[in-house]
Amino acid sequence: MPDTHRDTAEIKDMVRARYGGIAAGTAPADDALASSCCGTGAAAALRGKAREMGYSEGDLAAIPDGANLGLGCGNPQAIAALRPGETVVDLGSGAGFDCFLAARQVGPEGRVIGVDMTHEMLARARANAARIGAANVEFRLGEIEHLPIADNTADAILSNCVVNLVPDKAQVFREAFRVLKPGGRLAISDVVNTRPLPADLASDPALLCGCVAGAAPRLEIEAWLQAAGFRDIAVTVRPESRDLVASWAPGRGIEDFVASATVEARKPAAGEACCAPACCG
User: Fold this and answer.
1) Which domain holds residue 21?
2) Which DSSP symbol is given to 159?
3) DSSP string, 178-232
4) Domain for residue 1, yes or no?
5) Residue 2 maps to a domain
6) pLDDT given at position 26
7) Domain containing residue 130: CATH number
């Protein structure tokens, strides 16, 4: 879990500065994040990372240059089952990688909304969208704990290795529940904590921004989702992610403490009983 000596505002500032720097190309290439899920690197290396996460060559060929920043830890598209005409929201959309793939699946009658808290990422994503004429995609500035989206908007919510960066994860799931339509679904790839982190890893700011120190245990994620009102909750740890996770901070043994996972859940359909506070008020 994150260093408890850091307050929420400090954590957000650190994350915003790091990802804004990546988008602007000013993030240092020689720090502990250079090979992490927050790293940049050569195009070939980024394509290799994306394939490790579960994306196909067809996926990679379909996105504009500059949309793949190597920032994920899995492929939420693989569990989202997106359909033509649906509305999709991507939490922490970055340069637009998953948004552009989702836009292909929902088609011209569908709609994709990406939300990111960094101006630099938004500028990059919007430029990418303009370059390929992605008319069914838009990007909005905002924090995923306070989504700039109306109630009951989305058929599906995606996110890729972003929720772990947020101090108040329970609030993220409450907001996701609010924004989903009745019967809507959550499809997230993220990092979960499989064993308590040693103090040196938990307090390392590089690992906080590097999708490691902010990871939460599976049981806590399940409890937050249930409290928000979700049904059919499944948090599935991916043991095969061990090598990918190890590459984020070589030699530090982080693969013994965190792993990539998929997080799936569903908002009850209209008329379906729900007794969580989010449903009952």
Assistant:
1) 8-280
2) E
3) HHEEEEEEEEEEEEEESSPPPHHHHT-HHHHHTTSTT-EEHHHHHHHHHHHT-EE
4) no
5) no
6) 60
7) 3.40.50.150
Which two tokens mark 10?
Answer: 């400090």
pTM for this model (two decimals): 0.87
pLDDT in tens, 65-123: 778 777 788 889 899 999 999 999 999 999 999 999 999 999 999 999 999 999 999 99
How far CA 261 is from CA of 154, 183, 203, 218, in Å, comes to 22, 23, 23, 9
Q: For residue 263, is pLDDT > 90?
A: yes
For residue 3, tell me if it sits in a domain: no
**Residue 112 neighbours by CB under 8 Å, 6+ apart:** 87, 88, 89, 90, 99, 102, 103, 106, 136, 137, 138
Which candidate, 245, 268, 248, 247, places its Cα nearest to that of 258?
A: 245
pLDDT of residue 51: 78
Residue 217 lies inside a defined structural domain of this protein? yes
Question: Distance between CA atoms of 256 and 241, rounded to whole angstroms?
Answer: 11
